[in-house]
Design brief:
The chain has 268 residues and is α/β, with parallel strands linked by helices. Helices cover 49% and strands 16% of the residues. The model is unreliable at 194-201 (pLDDT under 50).
């Protein structure tokens, strides 16, 4: 049986934000890493920093998982390098801050491929090895958005994150008392490049500070949650309060409230 010192974690979308924070947290715990994203220069820098700081091996595989062939290429490279993945962090994602009809289908298809299809494909491919080795941890980086009513703008984002949550719950139930744990981690507003990339920084910067978390805290809590066998973890007391209120409030009221507040953090 492998020891912690030779277990390997694969993190998607590892070049920045929450993905980078997961890489840092897992390296600090002694896991070797495979980091993947589109920006190889960022990955190379991260790999050098983590190898120097923690003495772990860090493999870099630059890949675009929004390309339908991307997951297959990534899995092929893992096989070619003889890498067994013990921890999978499905983190890669993006938002499209516009009404559905104002986007192109190409943009929406890429979002579905990245946040739904690639999550399922990588999990399906890597899970059997985890079961065979009697050790596995799978994290789907979901969102508070997947636990509350959908809002106008970023129309498929909440649905994709709801998928990650239900997928994690179902898979965790299937795996039962095994030593393979699956957890959907659900952060709310997190300091990262996410809002810069999708052009909503000016809007979300108006949100009060108590609604925000840092990426390192999200990753630390997420790793602790999956190690403890939780199937869903909502990060932060504020986000847990919001999730609970939305779950117990009359749904017409909840939908109306979320719809009205959407203008505070999404361009209309």
């Amino acid at each position: 049986m492998a020891t912690l010192q030779n277990r390997t974690a694969l993190i998607t979308g590892a070049s920045a934000g929450i993905g980078r924070a997961f890489a840092e947290e897992l390296a600090a715990r002694g896991f070797h890493l495979v980091v993947t994203a589109r920006r190889k220069d960022r990955l190379d820098q991260l790999a050098a920093e983590l190898a120097a700081a923690h003495g772990v091996r860090v493999a870099v595989i630059a890949e675009d998982l929004a390309d339908p062939a991307g997951p297959t290429r990534l899995l092929g490279e893992l096989a070619a390098q003889g890498i067994d993945v013990d921890v999978l962090v499905n983190n890669a994602g993006f938002g499209l801050p516009a009404y559905f009809v104002r986007t192109t289908w190409r943009e929406q298809a890429a979002a579905i491929q990245l946040m739904v299809t690639s999550v399922a494909q990588l999990t399906h491919a890597l899970l059997p090895g985890m079961i065979e080795r009697d050790y596995g941890r799978i994290v789907h980086v979901a969102s508070l958005a997947g636990l509350i009513p959908g809002a106008p703008g970023s129309t498929l984002y909440a649905g994709a994150k709801s998928f990650c949550i239900k997928f994690a719950e179902s898979l965790a139930a299937e795996l039962g008392d095994s030593n393979v744990h699956v957890c959907a981690v659900c952060p709310g507003f997190t300091y990262s490049e996410f809002h810069d990339v999708n052009g909503t920084r000016a809007h979300v910067s108006k949100m009060p500070g108590y609604m925000w978390m840092d990426a390192a805290s999200v990753a630390r809590q997420g790793v602790a949650a999956v190690m403890a066998g939780q199937s869903v973890h909502v990060n932060g007391s504020w986000n847990r309060l919001v999730a609970a209120l939305m779950r117990h409030a009359p749904q017409p009221f909840a939908r109306n409230l979320v719809g009205r507040r959407a203008k505070d953090f999404r361009p209309q």
